[in-house]
């Protein structure tokens, strides 16, 4: 994970400064008076956008409040109906408000369709909700398209670490080589590091496992990969071989940590011709499923909020855990992995099990609101069934 947590919000202000007739007509139309012919209350009913066209205005129609394009998956609740007159024409308008009441106003009825809006995620470019028990996707959004996945790549790295310990060829107490100049520099990097390799300490597999899982340490993940396979190149080949053994045809790895080669090159750890790990949301979910199924301790380890490793605070950025901002008790979220690079955007693999339901695994890639959207996705997945 890149250290930068800054989320850029772009505010585009488009000004057309023209004195042409076309502009004058538009301004006149927007400023023209809308008069109310009649208004009546109606039984509250749910509607959603018919297309991307249309906007919500105040009743005088001289202030635009929101566009339908900006609210693609919002359910609007109609409580009033009015006939408004503009020039020589009349139209039926509905008074609408979203569920929270934070956006409300009047819109021409023809822009709406009766019924609740279909579920969707506004920000995630790719997403999936997977039933852990069956392995089937219950909801998806471009889930079979491979894209950069940042530090959620570490789920594969951690799987192979656990596999080595499980098969008896390694131990938690093994000392991992961490004195490589590139790994030391990476730990000191403002953008790619955070967990430092000190020369006076010998790091164990368990310490680096905790650093990679909780703090998303890149140098810890790479060092663990070298411990597993003997070299960075051999480990990446092992990652790809493991993906192939699971028949994940939308998964290709060039990095043990999830950093892109454009970042890794400065530390001597670039590999292959592609710039980034490219994995689909569904294949990420399937990797998580294998990890949880074969090594369920990942849920206990991944639900730790923070831990000190060699005096360094390893903070878990999963903000859906208990005590965090996006926690919802009924979802029982106990994992799993965050990720971010500027190229990959904010990524999150979440998992939890609601009482009486199967465990759910969710993946959102290149999101702007990863925890809010994961919470919505989990709740929607459970609304579709998944009964135990």
Overview of the structural elements:
The protein has 388 residues and is α+β, with helices and mostly antiparallel strands. The protein has two domains: 34-114, SH3 type barrels (Roll); 126-383, Beta-lactamase. Helix content is 27%, strand content 27%. The protein has helices spanning 21-31, 154-166, 181-188, 205-214, 218-229, 232-245, 261-264, 281-294, 297-302, 370-383, and strands at residues 34-49, 55-57, 64-67, 76-86, 89-97, 104-108, 112-114, 126-131, 137-141, 147-148, 251-252, 278-279, 306-309, 312-315, 333-341, 345-353, 359-367. The protein has a five-stranded antiparallel sheet, with no helix packed on it. A five-stranded antiparallel sheet has the order 9-8-17-16-15, sandwiched between helices. A three-stranded antiparallel sheet has the order 10-12-11. A hairpin with a 5-residue loop joins strand 8 (126-131) and strand 9. 41% of the residues are buried. Residues 4-30 have low confidence and may be disordered. The active site is at residues 151, 154, 216. Residues 124-368 form the Peptidase S11 D-alanyl-D-alanine carboxypeptidase A N-terminal domain. InterPro entries: Beta-lactam/transpept-like, Peptidase_S11, Peptidase_S11_N.
Number of DSSP strands?
17
**From the 3D coordinates, which CATH architecture of the largest domain would you assign?**
3-Layer(aba) Sandwich
Mean pLDDT rating: 92
Q: Helical segment tally?
A: 10
Corresponding CATH superfamily of the largest domain = DD-peptidase/beta-lactamase superfamily
Give the N-to-C terminal Cα separation: 35 Å
Q: What is the CATH class designation of the largest domain?
A: Alpha Beta
Class by SSE composition: alpha+beta
Approximately how much helix is present in the residues?
Answer: 25-40%
Compressed to H and E, one letter per element, the order equals HEEEEEEEEEEHHHHHEHEHHEEEEEH
Q: Which stretches are poorly predicted, pLDDT < 50 over at least 5 residues? A: 4-30
Strand content: 25-35%
Domain Peptidase S11 D-alanyl-D-alanine carboxypeptidase A N-terminal: 124-368
Protein name: D-alanyl-D-alanine carboxypeptidase
Family: Belongs to the peptidase S11 family.
Keywords: Carboxypeptidase, Cell shape, Cell wall biogenesis/degradation, Hydrolase, Peptidoglycan synthesis, Protease, Signal
């Amino acid at each position: 994970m890149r250290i930068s947590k800054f989320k850029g919000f772009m505010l585009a202000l488009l000004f057309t400064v023209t004195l042409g007739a076309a502009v004058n007509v538009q301004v006149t139309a927007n400023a023209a008076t809308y008069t109310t012919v009649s208004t009546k209350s109606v039984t509250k009913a749910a509607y959603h956008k018919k297309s991307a066209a249309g906007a919500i205005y105040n009743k005088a129609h001289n202030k635009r409040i929101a566009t339908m394009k900006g609210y693609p998956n919002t359910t609007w609740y109609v409580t009033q109906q009015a006939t408004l007159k503009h020039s020589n024409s009349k139209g039926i308008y509905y008074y609408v408000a979203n569920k929270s009441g934070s956006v409300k106003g009047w819109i021409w009825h023809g822009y709406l369709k009766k019924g609740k809006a279909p579920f969707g995620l506004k920000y995630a470019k790719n997403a999936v909700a997977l039933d852990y028990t069956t392995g089937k996707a219950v909801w998806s959004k471009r889930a079979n398209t491979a894209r950069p996945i940042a530090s959620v790549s570490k789920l594969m790295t951690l799987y192979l670490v656990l596999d080595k310990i499980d098969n008896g060829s390694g131990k938690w107490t093994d000392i991992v080589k961490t004195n490589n100049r590139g790994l030391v520099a990476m730990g000191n990097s403002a953008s790619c590091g955070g967990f430092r390799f000190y020369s006076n300490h010998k790091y164990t597999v368990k310490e680096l496992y905790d650093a990679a899982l909780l703090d998303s340490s890149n140098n810890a993940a790479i060092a663990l990969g070298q411990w597993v396979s003997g070299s960075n190149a051999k480990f990446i080949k092992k990652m790809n071989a493991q993906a192939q053994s699971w028949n994940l045809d939308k998964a290709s790895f060039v990095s043990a940590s999830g950093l892109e080669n454009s970042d890794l090159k400065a530390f001597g750890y670039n590999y292959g011709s592609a710039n980034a790990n490219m994995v689909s949301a569904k294949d990420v979910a399937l990797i998580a499923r294998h990890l949880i199924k074969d090594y369920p301790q990942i849920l206990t380890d991944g639900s730790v909020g923070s831990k000190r490793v060699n005096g360094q605070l390893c903070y878990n950025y999963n903000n859906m855990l208990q005590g965090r901002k996006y926690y919802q008790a009924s979802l029982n979220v106990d994992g799993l992995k965050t990720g971010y690079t500027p190229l990959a955007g904010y990524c999150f693999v979440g998992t939890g099990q609601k009482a009486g339901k199967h465990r759910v695994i969710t993946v959102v890639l290149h999101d702007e609101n990863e925890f809010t959207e994961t919470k919505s996705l989990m709740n929607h997945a459970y609304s579709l069934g998944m009964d135990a």
